[in-house]
Design brief:
Blueprint: E1 31-33, E2 36-38, E3 41-50, E4 53-60, E5 69-72, H1 80-85
Antiparallel strand pairs: 1-2, 3-4, 4-5
Length: about 90
């Protein structure tokens, strides 16, 4: 029989987070569509040109601002309505 041993002097008390950025809420799992992970776009925040391509700063539904990503328009084939609304 194996026993795990841990020194209780190494334990510390739980402290509440002082700043909002210290706590990250759990993220939702992706939808599985045709055996591929799919994430829902909540909104487009900005756009920019990279060479001849357009990129959009995407805010994902259920995720924090720190998870926003620049995605090329070609990679957003399922979000035509969101792009048009932007």
């Amino acid at each position: 029989m194996i026993h795990n041993v841990f020194n209780k002097d190494l334990l510390t008390r739980y402290k509440k987070h002082h700043f909002p950025g210290q706590y990250m809420k759990p993220v939702p799992p992706p939808d599985i569509i045709n055996k591929k992970e799919e994430y829902e776009v909540e909104k487009i925040r900005k756009h920019r040109k990279q060479g001849w391509k357009t990129q959009f700063l995407i805010h994902w539904k259920g995720y924090g601002d720190e998870q926003d990503q620049w995605i090329a328009e070609i990679g957003l084939s399922h979000t035509r309505k969101v792009i048009k609304d932007y």
